[in-house]
Structures are given as structure tokens and as C-alpha cells.
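Methods, example record. To illustrate the input and output format used throughout this study, we show the complete record for Translation initiation factor IF-3. The sequence lines were provided to the predictor; the line carrying C-alpha cells was produced by it.
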Amino acid sequence: MVSKLEGKKETTVHNVLNLTLTPLVKLSLHTYKFSRRLTYGKLQYQKKKRQAQSARPVVKEVRFGLNIGVADYKLRIEQAVGWLSKGDSVKFAVRLRGREHQYREQAGELLDRVVTDLNSVGKVQSLDKRSLIALIIPA
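The corresponding predicted structure is encoded as:
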């Protein structure tokens, strides 16, 4: 019976030693402040991961067909304005199907219209009328 108690005492002493060796990190959520045990390596890993995620450039893609309606076009432009104001790049692609390939000039004009509509919030990085793709970056 004595050996069982000694084993428990050893584990509690071991736990106390672990508590003293791990640093406490103070966190504040809104008005509540509390401390949490956290290993320093894990903290460094999370910080590095957050920095890499925030530094990564984001490219949003918008695809539409040649016969896009006025309301749909306006909606896509409004979404692109929001993304560009947030700092994301926007890639526009016009998709042609079947006989629509005969009207590639109209698709090029559609891309030109997109570029002129977004001149106020972004600038054109690349405009490829052959593949019908326009990449617009924030101004």
C-alpha cells in the first residue's frame, strides 16, 4: 500500500516540475484575461504559419460566358471591386462553348469592358485576348 502512494506522489511531483518548465502565455479575449500553458516551439510554429498565410497573395477568379446578362455582369463587377479594395487580385476568364468560338472578337470586347469598368480600383497586369483572360491587381 505504501508503494501505491509513493507512485502517486512521484507523478504529482513530476507534474509540478512540468508546470514550472513550460512557459505561461497570457491571452486576452475581449475583456477576459487568462493564462494558458503552451510550449514555445508550438507558439513559434503558429506565429510563422499566420505570417505565411497573411503574406500569401490571393487571386480570385471570375468566369463567365459570352452571353452574360446585365445583372450578372454588374454583380461580378461589384464582387471584383470588393476583392480589389481588400487587396486581392482578380482573374477574369471568358469561357466559350461550341459555336461561341466564332465570336471571339465579342469576347475580347467583353474583357475590354471589364478592364475599363475596373480602372478606378485596379490596374491591368495582363490582358490576353488569345486565351481570353485578364488579370487585374489592386491599384
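Annotations derived from this record:
The first strand starts at residue 24 and ends at 29.
The chain is about 50% helix and 30% strand.
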